[in-house]
Design a protein that fits this description.
The protein is an alpha+beta fold and 607 residues long. The chain contains 27 helices and 15 strands. It has 5 domains: 97 residues, Zinc finger, CHC2-typedomain (DNA Primase, Chain A), CATH 3.90.580; 123 residues, DNA primase DNAg catalytic core, N-terminal domain, CATH 3.90.980.10; 116 residues, Dna Topoisomerase Vi A Subunit, Chain: A, domain 2 (3-Layer(aba) Sandwich), CATH 3.40.1360; 69 residues, no CATH class; 158 residues, DNAb Helicase, Chain A (Orthogonal Bundle). The strands form 4 sheets. Strands 1-2-3-4-5 form a 5-stranded antiparallel sheet. Strand 9 and strand 10 form a beta hairpin. Helix 26 packs antiparallel against helix 27. The structure holds zinc ion.
Length: 607
C-alpha cells in the first residue's frame, strides 16, 4: 500500500502556475505584483479575488475563500483532495501511479481516530434501524413521510433500548473507551465504574462536518417520559456547539447551484423538504444562530430564506435569526407559513407546489418586523409607533451596514409614514450615543451579549494569526508563541488540529517544518482560506502581531471564565457559600484581566 509522497505533491504543485490554472475559469488582470478578477465563488461587480504568483495562492476578500492551487481545484471543481491532485497532475502531464490514489495521504491523527469511533456508532445505529425487530422505528420515519433513500442519505438510525448494545460493539472493535466517553457515546453508570450506552431507545440523527465526517449525534425521544426530548452529543475535540448546521454537508452543492439556502428549525422540517426534492436546505436545530454559523452559510451563498413555524415563537425565532444573518453581511428573507403549520406538517399534507407561494412571499427582516407590528396593532397609538421606530433604528444600527441603512431608512419612512429627514436625524443621534457608550465600556471586563460577537470574531482572527505565525514566523516569534499558548485558548476545531500537529512536530523532531505540517491540512478549506488571507498581508512587525494575538486569546479565555462564574452566581441552584466563593473567583479573574490589559498596554510603549 503506497501513498502519494510529499515529494510527488510538491512536484505537481511546482509544475503548475496557479495564475495559469485559474485563468482557465476567471479572467485575471495584472494589479501590481498580483492578479485580480471577479470572484468565481460569489457574485460581485468589482473584483476582490486576488491571485498571487509569487506566493502561489488565491484569496477573495469578498467572500473569504482562499488557499493554494489544490484548494482552488477542490472548491471550484468540487473535488476531494485526491481527485484535485489527480486533476492537477493531468493538467501538468505528470503520471500518478494508480494505487497511490486509493490511500489517503493524511496520517491517522488523533482526530481521525475520533471520527472513526463515531463512524462505528453511526453504522451501528443505522444497521439497527433496518433490523426486523426494530421495524416499528423504521415505520416511525416512514409514517412521517420519509423514504428509505432520504433515511439512508442522512444516515438516520436507531439506538436500541439496552444498556450496553453500543458498548459491546465498541469493545468488539477495540475502541478506546475513554475516547468514546469523551465523544458522549457512553457514560459511566451511577452505581459502578462501568460504562453504559448514553443513547438508548432513541432515533438518531448524525451530525456531519463539511468533509462528511460524523462529529456528533442528536437522539430524539420515542417515549414521552424520556427526557430530554432531544439528547445531543456534548462538546468534544471534534464537535463544538454552534459550529455546524444540520444538513449543510448534504446540501452544499445544491446551495451553490441555486445560489440560495432555505433555513428551517427542525430535523424533520429539513428531511421533509429534501423528501419533496427541495435539497438546498439546512436546519438551525431550534437555537439562535451563531455568527459563526451565519458566516459559514455565507461561504456558499449570500441569500438565506428562513422558513420557520407560523406560530408566535417561530416568527420570533425567524426574525432574530434573520437579523443575525444580516449582521454578518448576508441577505435574509423571511417566508411566513400559516399560524398552525411548520414545514414538516405543511408538506405532510401538501406538495411542494402548494408551498411555493409561501417560499415566494419573501420579506426582509425589517419589512417582516413592520408587518408583524401592524398585525398586532392595527391602530397603533403615537407612543407605540415612536417606541417601535426606535426599536427598528436600534436593529438597523446593529447591522452596521451603510448600504442597508441607505435602503431601509426610506422603506421605514414609507411604511410607517414618518418624515425621512427626521428618521435620519434620529438614527445619527443613536449612532453617536452608541459610539460614546462603546468607548466608555472598554476598560470594563463585563461581558454582554452584544459584545460577545465581537469577541468571537477577534478570537477567530487571533487563532488564525498564531497558527499562521507558528508556521511562517521566525524562531523568536515561534518560541514566544509556543511558550504562551495552550489548547484551551483555541475555540475553532480546525485550528486546534493545526496547533496540535505543530506541537507534535516540535515534540517529536524539535523543529517545525511548515510545509510538512500544511500537507496534512491540504483538505481543510477553512484553514487554507484563513491562512491565504494572512499570506497576502504585509506584517511590519510580526512579533508585535504575535503579542497582540496572544493578548486577545488570553483575554478571551479569561472572559469566558468570568462569564461562567457570573452564570453560576446568577443560577438558583447554588448555595450561599458557593455563591460567595464564585464571587471571589470572579473578582480574581476580573483582576487578572485588568492586569493583562495593563501589561499589554505597557508592552506597546516599549516596543
Ligand atoms: Zn469571493
Amino acid at each position: 500500500m503506497g501513498k502519494i509522497s510529499p515529494l510527488k505533491i510538491d512536484e505537481i504543485r511546482g509544475a503548475i502556475n496557479i495564475v495559469h490554472y485559474i485563468s482557465q475559469f476567471v479572467s485575471l488582470k495584472k494589479a501590481g505584483q498580483n492578479f485580480k478578477g471577479l470572484c468565481p465563488f460569489h457574485t460581485e461587480k468589482t473584483p476582490s479575488f486576488i491571485v498571487s504568483p509569487s506566493k502561489q495562492i488565491f484569496h477573495c476578500f469578498g467572500c473569504g475563500k482562499g488557499g493554494n492551487l489544490f484548494t482552488f481545484i477542490m472548491e471550484y471543481e468540487k473535488l476531494s483532495f485526491i481527485e484535485a491532485l489527480r486533476r492537477a497532475a493531468d493538467f501538468a502531464g505528470i503520471p500518478l501511479p494508480e494505487e497511490d490514489l486509493q490511500t489517503q495521504i493524511k496520517e491517522r491523527t488523533y482526530f481521525e481516530k475520533l471520527y472513526q469511533i463515531n463512524e462505528i456508532a453511526a453504522k451501528f445505529f443505522e444497521e439497527n434501524l433496518f433490523k426486523k425487530e426494530n421495524r416499528n422505528w423504521l415505520q416511525y420515519f416512514k409514517k412521517r413521510g420519509l423514504s428509505e433513500k432520504t433515511i439512508r442519505k442522512f444516515q438516520l438510525g436507531y439506538a436500541p433500548d439496552a444498556k450496553t448494545a453500543l458498548l459491546d460493539v465498541l469493545k468488539k472493535n477495540s475502541v478506546d473507551l475513554a475516547e468514546a466517553e469523551k465523544l458522549g457515546l457512553i457514560n459511566r453508570s451511577y452505581y459502578s465504574e462501568s460504562f453504559i450506552d448514553k443513547f438508548r431507545h432513541r432515533v438518531m440523527f448524525p451530525f456531519h462536518n463539511l468533509s462528511g465526517k460524523i462529529i456528533g449525534f442528536g437522539g430524539r425521544q420515542l417515549r414521552e417520559e424520556q427526557q430530554p426530548k432531544y439528547l445531543n452529543s456534548p462538546e468534544s475535540p471534534i464537535y463544538k456547539k454552534g459550529s455546524i448546521l444540520y444538513g449543510l454537508y448534504q446540501a452544499i452543492n445544491r446551495i451553490r447551484e441555486e445560489d440560495y439556502v432555505i433555513l428551517v428549525e427542525g430535523y424533520f422540517d429539513l428531511l421533509q423538504l429534501v423528501e419533496h426534492g427541495q435539497t438546498n436546505v439546512v436546519a438551525s436545530s431550534g437555537t439562535a444562530l451563531t455568527d459563526y454559523q451565519a458566516r459559514l452559510l455565507g461561504r456558499y451563498t449570500q441569500k438565506v430564506l428562513l422558513l420557520y413555524d407560523g406560530d408566535a415563537a417561530g416568527r420570533k425565532a425567524a426574525l432574530r435569526n434573520g437579523y443575525i444573518l444580516e449582521k454578518n453581511g448576508l441577505n435574509a428573507y423571511i417566508a411566513v407559513l400559516p399560524a398552525d403549520e411548520d414545514p414538516d406538517s405543511f408538506l405532510s399534507k401538501n406538495d411542494l407546489k402548494e408551498l411555493e407561494p409561501y417560499l415566494k412571499s419573501q420579506l426582509t427582516p425589517i419589512e417582516f418586523e413592520i408587518n408583524s407590528f401592524f398585525e398586532e396593532n392595527p391602530k397603533p397609538s403615537l407612543q407605540d409607533k415612536n417606541q417601535f421606530v426606535m426599536q427598528l433604528l436600534e436593529n438597523l444600527l446593529e447591522l452596521n451596514d451603510p448600504l442597508k441603512t441607505g435602503l431601509y431608512l426610506p422603506l421605514i419612512s414609507d411604511l410607517l409614514q414618518i418624515n425621512e429627514a427626521l428618521l435620519i436625524e434620529q438614527y445619527r443621534k443613536l449612532e453617536k450615543r452608541r459610539r460614546r457608550w462603546s468607548k466608555k465600556e472598554e476598560p470594563e471586563a463585563e461581558i454582554t451579549p452584544e459584545k460577545e460577537d465581537r469577541f468571537h470574531r477577534g478570537q477567530y482572527l487571533a487563532e488564525a494569526g498564531v497558527v499562521y505565525l507558528l508556521l511562517n514566523g521566525d524562531e523568536k516569534v515561534r518560541n514566544f508563541l509556543v511558550s504562551q499558548l495552550s489548547y484551551d485558548m483555541f475555540e475553532t476545531p480546525s485550528f486546534i488540529e493545526v496547533y496540535e500537529a505543530i506541537v507534535t512536530e516540535l515534540e517529536e523532531r524539535g523543529i517545525v517544518d511548515a510545509k510538512s505540517v500544511m500537507l496534512q491540512f491540504e483538505e481543510a478549506v477553512d484553514v487554507q482560506a484563513a491562512l491565504s488571507a494572512l499570506d497576502l498581508m504585509e506584517f511590519n512587525d510580526p512579533f508585535k502581531f504575535a503579542r497582540d494575538c496572544i493578548f486577545q486569546l488570553k483575554k478571551w479565555s479569561l472572559e469566558k471564565k468570568a462569564q461562567e462564574f457570573q452564570e453560576l452566581i446568577r443560577s438558583d441552584h447554588e448555595s450561599q457559600d458557593a455563591v460567595a466563593h464564585y464571587t471571589m473567583e470572579l473578582m480574581r479573574v476580573r483582576k487578572e484581566i485588568n492586569v493583562l490589559i495593563k501589561t499589554h498596554r505597557q508592552g506597546d510603549v516599549e516596543f
